[in-house]
């Protein structure tokens, strides 16, 4: 198993007619210097990314990740990515992942300060072992995101629908959750509406309906949440996008944080209130999420 | 004149007894690869920075920048920086700046993903030519920051008092200002209180008092604003820290955006309302800011 793999990508425009992008990829040593100190990703978190789960060398839900990459680029006024080029890079990186679970990151930076073009690269690494947390679950705390629920629509410069490299607040929220004795956080609005977790989407089951906050600009559309909903619908279960009130969380009869690499982590506690853990259902959901999916 | 200079720094702890840190600096080619793709600064904007102005090889207000670096590190749960080491690196980088104006950046990243220690580096580059804008001024628009003025105190995980590398929103705000035909932005709270500009502090003159928003957690304490206030006080002028209402901006009889490299840019227009430009005072203020200061 190659443990770490990285490619620097010379970004193509969307109308590039090539079908083989191999010549635009340069393999680099993931542990050696590869980026200059002038990189705007490092200086300003100015860029976007995707984290793609890989199971036994198969990259999961690539199209959904590529669609979101293009959406993030648009919100951030970055040049539109050539999605076929990114797909080819993703497939190539996945081929270098061994058996088991890995994670591929797609990163598109605004480039070098005053430079001519974006910088792009992709990395593949073994995933952390999340087998335990998928069974035993996570305790979460709700944290004020500081925004009311109408902010995303009226202030697009806050980039709330984009998956940017400026994740310092997301990381700080997880540290704050740990300080409070929990494992993870859920961001909520100042007017009592649930947004999302710092690095995951939320699904709650209330009265046998699987509910997730509507992705109306304030939150990212979760690729794993999308996939989980399609599976639930195929099982004949009822799913719903709607505003979720913070107060409702404590009445959920089950809840999960879902993301591309950790997959479905059942929530066992929210702000100290115990949430029932549906072990059987969680196991089936993760079994589905661990199966190869496009 | 060396146009670009960069040092990678092996971060020392604050209690490191050395007085000579030369052996902890490695000069690198600022245009060549120096950072690995695993850097959390690039992946998550997870780190802090300072931009120090340099005039004819003299780094300005170094202590104020070092103090703010330490303050940002504390807010972000980063290991406390050894300020004497950073001072030595700053002096060394300044010595490689030629005559005229330059900019030194101090960057402290959380390090490589799952790595043992932070990554630190410093760069020196020629400053853009801001001579014109210091005379002719900037047009600004106010932009909703999405937060009410009480958010910073109640939600420290939003890192509002820290100068983090997660500046994608700051950059997006400047792009939005340009889309609106202006040059720069001023962030305001949802309850009508002025915060700061994306990369500068605001000083307004109202009834012969020089006023700046109080740095109570929601905004950075501006090093150049501090220096400008001390100069104004020495001139016998009245300065004041207080809440500034958005509505007051349009009644200012003069206003400036002040920052370490552009220095004092007079504001000529706010949201389409003309603000008087005090050319003589602005010239004297910039003359002071261009003089060597510690």
UniProtKB/TrEMBL annotation, chains A, B:
<dbReference type="InterPro" id="IPR050571">
    <property type="entry name" value="Class-IV_PLP-Dep_Aminotrnsfr"/>
</dbReference>
<dbReference type="InterPro" id="IPR001544">
    <property type="entry name" value="Aminotrans_IV"/>
</dbReference>
<dbReference type="Pfam" id="PF01063">
    <property type="entry name" value="Aminotran_4"/>
</dbReference>
<dbReference type="InterPro" id="IPR043131">
    <property type="entry name" value="BCAT-like_N"/>
</dbReference>
<comment type="similarity">
    <text>Belongs to the class-IV pyridoxal-phosphate-dependent aminotransferase family.</text>
</comment>
<keyword id="KW-0808">Transferase</keyword>
<keyword id="KW-0032">Aminotransferase</keyword>
<protein>
    <submittedName>
        <fullName>Aminotransferase class IV</fullName>
    </submittedName>
</protein>
<dbReference type="InterPro" id="IPR043132">
    <property type="entry name" value="BCAT-like_C"/>
</dbReference>
<dbReference type="InterPro" id="IPR036038">
    <property type="entry name" value="Aminotransferase-like"/>
</dbReference>
<dbReference type="GO" id="GO:0008483">
    <property type="term" value="F:transaminase activity"/>
</dbReference>
């Amino acid at each position: 198993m190659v443990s770490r793999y990285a490619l620097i990508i010379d970004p193509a425009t969307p109308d590039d007619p090539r079908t083989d992008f191999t010549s635009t990829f340069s393999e680099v040593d993931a542990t050696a210097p590869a980026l200059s100190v002038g990189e705007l990703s490092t200086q300003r978190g100015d860029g976007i990314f995707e984290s793609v789960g890989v199971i036994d060398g198969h990259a999961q839900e690539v199209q959904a990740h590529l669609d979101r990459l293009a959406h993030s680029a648009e919100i951030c006024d970055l040049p539109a990515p050539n999605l076929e080029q990114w797909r080819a890079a993703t497939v190539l990186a996945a081929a270098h992942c061994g058996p088991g679970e890995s994670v591929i990151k797609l990163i598109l930076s605004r480039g070098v300060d005053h430079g001519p073009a974006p910088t792009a690269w992709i990395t593949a690494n073994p995933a952390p072992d999340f087998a335990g947390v998928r069974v035993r679950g996570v305790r979460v705390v709700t944290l004020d995101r500081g925004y009311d629920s109408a902010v995303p629509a009226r202030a697009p410069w806050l980039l709330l629908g984009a998956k940017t490299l400026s994740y310092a607040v997301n990381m700080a929220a997880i540290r704050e959750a740990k300080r409070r004795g929990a494992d993870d956080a859920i961001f909520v609005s100042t007017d009592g509406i649930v947004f999302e977790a710092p690095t995951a989407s939320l699904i709650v089951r209330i009265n046998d309906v699987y509910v997730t906050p509507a992705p109306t600009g304030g939150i990212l559309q979760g690729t794993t949440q999308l996939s989980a909903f399609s599976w639930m619908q195929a099982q004949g279960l009822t799913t719903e996008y709607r505003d979720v009130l913070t107060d409702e969380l404590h009445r959920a009869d089950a809840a999960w944080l879902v993301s591309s690499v950790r997959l479905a982590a059942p929530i066992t506690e929210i702000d100290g209130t115990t949430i029932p853990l549906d072990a059987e259902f969680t196991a089936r959901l993760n079994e589905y999420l661990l199966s190869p999916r496009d």
